[in-house]
Write a structure and sequence with these properties.
With 244 residues, the chain is mostly beta strands. It contains 3 helices and 11 strands, in the order αββαββββββαβββ. It comes from Hydnomerulius pinastri MD-312.
């Protein structure tokens, strides 16, 4: 498929300008930890578009946090299955909302990072060192994106906490990137929230890390891209996924 004409493309962007999403629920081994408990959720569901901004860390900034920030720290055993759940608004699932959990046009990858932190409820998040534990991008054979799978699964994404990492308090940065307007930079839309975790058990491995901002560049092929064509590959932004 060729690039959509500029008029049609502009209409698409305009029609989906508010079809955003918020990560707002955590499940640990299938057990719901409660609506917005332990997650730094914003009062607005809009994206970050500047990869050099500190707002790329845990959202916030132009999307003010709910006040006060949750004082809940979610206990997660190393090696556990964690599920993150997204919805269009903080009201949660709404079958009557055609843009819930996110508009179907907002195709792109989904990723999860962890960063060790002295106190998971501290307000300062700059300077943390992050490692990626999960990613899902494009299935080339079907041209299906991670966000397509998120929508099919009613807003839920499941991944595993590495069993070998050190116990302690962490922030979990869970992110999706919508690429519907990513033909030029800034155009990609970054949606992320951070959940506050206490990881128990585990081992002594310290994975290699990256910084936010810094891990992404606007020129990355997974960030500035025309998705309105038959793609033969897609490079997910950021580092490789850490495995034990």
């Amino acid at each position: 498929m060729k690039t959509a004409p500029s008029v049609a493309f502009a209409a698409l962007v305009a029609s989906t300008a508010s079809a955003h999403s918020i990560f707002q629920e955590v499940y640990v081994n299938g057990v719901d930890q409660g609506h917005i408990n332990g997650i730094r959720v914003p009062t607005y569901d809009g994206p970050i578009t500047d990869v050099t901004s500190n707002d790329l860390i845990c959202n916030g900034g132009i999307n003010p946090y709910q006040q006060p920030v949750s004082d809940v720290i979610i206990s997660v055993p190393a090696g556990a299955q964690v599920t993150a759940e997204w919805h269009h608004t903080l009201a949660g699932a709404d079958p009557s909302d055609s843009a819930d959990p996110i508009d179907k046009s907002h195709k792109g990858p989904i990723m999860t990072y962890l960063a060790k932190i002295p106190n998971a409820t501290q307000t300062t998040v700059t300077g943390l060192q992050w490692f990626k534990i999960y990613e899902d991008g494009l299935t080339v054979s079907t041209q299906q994106w991670a966000v397509d799978r998120l929508i099919a699964n009613k807003g839920k994404v499941t991944f595993t906490i590495p069993s070998c990492i050190e116990p302690g308090q962490y922030l979990m940065r869970h992110e999706l990137i919508a690429l519907h307007a990513a033909e030029s930079y800034p155009g990609a839309q970054f949606y992320m929230e951070c959940a506050q975790l206490q990881i128990t058990g585990g081992g002594s491995t310290s994975p290699p890390t990256v910084s936010f901002p810094g891990a992404y560049k606007g020129s990355d092929p997974g960030i500035t891209i025309n998705i309105y064509q038959n793609l033969t590959s897609y490079t997910i932004p950021g580092p490789s996924v850490f495995t034990c």
